[in-house]
Specification:
The complex is a heterodimer of chains A (116) and B (112). By secondary structure, chain A is mainly beta. Chain A is built from no helices and eleven strands. In chain A, strands 2, 4, 5, 6, 9, 10 and 11 form a seven-stranded mixed β-sheet that branches. Chain A has a four-stranded antiparallel β-sheet with strand order 1-3-8-7, with no helix packed on it. Chain A starts with a strand and ends with a strand. The chains are: A mainly beta (116), B mainly beta (112).
């Protein structure tokens, strides 16, 4: 199994450009989420989804959109990139709470985004 | 959400045991204690979790205080590959239980 796959690994954007960070998992996990990690800040939750068609906001949702049309994919969209969005982005997935209460999160290896 | 407090950094020597502390004085009776670690340039990975009793697995042991206001992750013999940031997280029962909130963790350095 590939687990959680994130693409691209690296990306440089200019201010105002848009892009989509891709996240796919092949474990049939109901729950998926996006985190960003900045130096000295730990990981902060951006958006999450408890199943196809359902999304909700985390701690720092502003400037980001998500959708969940399939169980496997959970893309993160930046509509108009800003330098403050320079960060490392991690996608994570797990079984839903209804399937396995303490199911651990599985993380991808991240996308390093720089906005100039 | 109940919060955790961890030291910013710790050092250990290779092949010695490491005890990583975590304080969670506002823990509720239904919060599970989870530990993750993040190796350099990788996403976090699950280590261990527990509720009240001490837990062991192939990676580590988790010792939970009787009043549950603190816990300790124990690496029995540290290796260079254990150098990572270790996160202690409380996971509540009910609600969006997968919605984990990470703090800044403890950066563990392992000296050869």
């Amino acid at each position: 199994n590939a687990g959680v796959t994130q693409t691209p690994k690296f990306q440089v954007l200019k201010t105002g450009q848009s892009m989509t960070l891709q996240c796919a998992q092949d474990m049939n996990h109901e729950y998926m989420s996006w985190y960003r990690q900045d130096p000295g800040m730990g990981l902060r939750l951006i958006h999450y989804s408890v199943g196809a068609g359902i999304t909700d906001q985390g701690e720092v949702p502003n400037g980001y959109n998500v959708s969940r049309s399939t169980t496997e994919d959970f893309p993160l969209r930046l509509l108009s990139a800003a330098p403050s969005q320079t960060s490392v982005y991690f996608c994570a997935s797990s079984l839903g709470a209804g399937s396995s209460y303490n199911s651990p999160l599985h993380f991808g290896n991240g996308t390093r985004l720089t906005v100039t | 959400d109940a919060k955790t407090t961890q030291p910013n950094s710790m050092e250990s020597n290779e092949e010695e045991p490491v005890h990583l502390p975590c304080n969670h004085s506002t823990i509720s009776g239904t919060d599970y204690i989870h530990w993750y670690r993040q190796l350099p340039s990788q996403g976090p990975e699950y280590v261990i979790h527990g509720l009240t009793s001490n837990v062991n697995n192939r990676m580590a042991s988790l010792a939970i205080a009787e009043d549950r206001k603190s816990s300790t992750l124990i690496l029995h013999r540290a290796t260079l590959r254990d150098a990572a940031v270790y996160y202690c997280i409380l996971r509540p029962l009910g609600g969006a239980t997968n919605k984990l909130i990470f703090g800044t963790g403890t950066l563990l350095a392992v000296q050869p």
